Amino acid sequence: MVVAMMVALIVCIFSTPSAAQEPNSSDEPKPDLICHTSNPDECYPRIFQPTDEFQIVHEDQELPAGLHIRLNIWTGQKEAKVNVPGEADASLEGLPVGQDVVEVDAEAQPEARPEIPPGAPKYEPFGKIMEPPSGSAEFAEGLRALKAGVGEDGRAFDDALEVLDDLAHDIYYGVKIAEDTEAVESLLCLMSGQSAPATADGAVPRDRQAAQILASAVQHNPVALRALVAAWPRLLAESRCPGTGEPLRLSLYSSVEPSRNGEGAGAEQAAARVRSKVSAIKALLGDDFVRTNFLRGGGMASLLKVLVPEDEAWAGAQQRVGQLVLDTFFDEGMGAAPGDWPRLSKLTDEQCQTEEDGTAEGCWDYHVARIMKLSKAGEEDWSRLLHERLAAARKEQSNGRTHEDL
Question: Which keywords does this chain's UniProt record carry (predicted)?
Fold first, then answer.
């Protein structure tokens, strides 16, 4: 018996170190665990193991279907448990669940967007346009004077234009101006006059004031623009302006040309008049129909003539023309449709230096590059941006011709 006990003791002593040297299998991460550190206590199952109590769900864990999942509004962590239909969550007592707690079904699919039926009215972000609490009497009198014409009292007419200019920025009054076809016709005729209309001493030239009113009325005001465009075909086809008898379709777009704004005025005043008219045309070009009509009516040739003068006084007007072209024909975020313009091929510098071809559509590249070099334009200058957009458009044109040849 004693011998047996001694043998057992010897075996126990010699077997203990061997057991101590064996690695602890619990220290080894199992294949179904995720471990981001060497500490095994920080490992967690790759597939979430739900219980009857909410547990934190790690971002890289896989969730079985059909769990009760919630976002803890206090910690910002996602939690999940076994789903029990109809069970109320005691932790939500006293809380406005619909606003502060989001419960998500793991198998829920994104809700499909409802289809818009054909012919449904377009969403109008403005809603109902309310009449402002003041200014209605002055506006009505200004509109009446505008439609009546200059008459004998030029000062009263200029005062009326100034009132309309002040109020046209308001969405309500902008719509009211655009809906009045007679008033729009009067403004367009004033804007497209052959030379600077006479004004009372100290008043803004009437063509410039009319352009400012039109620009203010329809810019950023789609309701007003739609109202004005509804009468656009008739205005251009039938309207003949007092004094000249010239139809609007011939005089409106060319009203920006320097030669139509410089008579009896210095370069600075002529350039200021052109700036206002370019702004009005830019606002009108926000409509697809007007833009198409403008391109077909030679409007781009008239705008190009603004880039020809080398007098520094024209720099502001030239910048406004460049921004119009960038926004209207190259910036899709502003509603531009790629491919609308340019339509004709680029001409050589030699051709564009001649009086005959100098303002042809193919010379936009030449004049923009000339201004860019003279002004030593920086990376964000309008002339450099437009030069780059034109170069890209010409490359597309060239590629298109190559494909056609093939």
Answer: Signal
